[in-house]
Design goal:
Blueprint: E1 3-8, H1 15-25, E2 30-36, H2 47-57, E3 64-69, H3 73-80, E4 84-89, H4 92-108, E5 113-118, H5 128-136, H6 147-158
Parallel strand pairs: 1-2, 1-4, 2-3, 4-5
């Protein structure tokens, strides 16, 4: 059985993330979406809110589960008994960072491999940061995120 982790902040989850999640779920037996509690960032949504949104938008994918984590990804992989990490790549700048992380993770835990999936071209420009910025200025984010996520962002921005 192949169990993989797709880690990220998902603040918020975008159609680009969902593209990678959907495609990954067809490749592996079980996909664990690891929602990172990153102490270096100030997220728009709490980890609990991000987990809830991800569970909602992936509810139709039977082999996907959503789990929050903090600390080292390789430790999380050990806890989840996963030997594969999936990462999405939009551009060469993503690759430079991701290859460095992949090599570090492999050095820390040789049993954990990383698989890169290139993002669908229609999402190659998209990031959670862009979504937050467009939303902060009142722009239409419906083409970037699922409807339930757009609603949550709008509610959060109005607070």
């Amino acid at each position: 059985m192949i169990r993989a982790i797709y880690p990220g902040s998902f603040d918020p989850v975008t159609f680009g993330h969902l593209d990678i999640i959907t495609r990954s779920s067809k490749i592996v037996d079980e996909l664990i979406i690891g929602v990172l509690m990153n102490k270096a960032k100030t997220p728009l949504f709490s980890v609990e809110e991000r987990v809830k949104m991800l569970k909602e938008v992936t509810k139709d994918l039977g082999n996907v589960k959503v789990v929050p984590f903090d600390g080292l990804l390789v430790e999380f992989a050990r806890q989840q008994k996963a030997r594969l990490v999936i990462r999405g790549l939009r551009a060469i700048t993503d690759f430079e960072y991701e290859i460095q992380m992949s090599q570090t993770n492999h050095k820390l835990e040789p049993e954990v491999e990383t698989m890169f999936l290139t993002t669908n071209l229609k999402y190659s420009y998209l990031s959670s940061t862009i979504v937050r910025e467009v939303a902060a200025f009142g722009g239409d984010i419906s083409q970037f995120v699922p409807e339930t996520v757009a609603k949550s962002i709008k509610e959060k921005m109005s607070q």
